[in-house]
Amino acid sequence: MLQEWSKLLAPAVQDRITLLLNHVMSREPVATARLAPHTGKTLRLRLAGWPAMLPAAPDLRLRVTPAGLLERMGDEDAPRQEADLLIELDASNPAAAAFAALSGARPDVRVQGDAQLAGDFNWLIDHVRWDIEDDLAAITGPAVAHQLGRFGRAAATAMATLARTAGRFMPDGQGRA
Prior knowledge:
By secondary structure, this protein is of the alpha+beta class. It has one domain (2-131): Nonspecific Lipid-transfer Protein, Chain A (2-Layer Sandwich), CATH 3.30.1050. It contains 6 helices and 5 strands, in the order ααββββαβααα. Helix 3 runs antiparallel to helix 6 (142-167). The model has no long low-confidence stretch (mean pLDDT 82).
């Protein structure tokens, strides 16, 4: 039953991830300018080392738009050919990876495929970060957003430490975080 829910929820979750990526990139004009020349090229985001006890995580297939943003390719859109760029994220400890991403750490990523697209994508990974405080400031005002940001960073750091520690007790016994 969990597998059925996973198949139903995966496209919706992937759509939200795509929206978040586009939101973050649209705040940085240089990011969209770097991707725009790659219009029509495809990317495949794969979670490597995903824990077997969790439902399988499907690959996220994306296409670069003329605006330098990304659009999710559904099963009907995605040809069975290889993507121009394969991006593998280490997901052996999903909790630690999520908290590291929230704290602004560079994810453990392996990229292969089109060299120019890989170079531009690596640049995005190194230089583009989500400014959560800026988004919160539009809702709450800058002072409250700053305080929430400080609290969020402290909580993310504590949770990342907890996740790394808990990762040592995962069934694989390797303690990767």
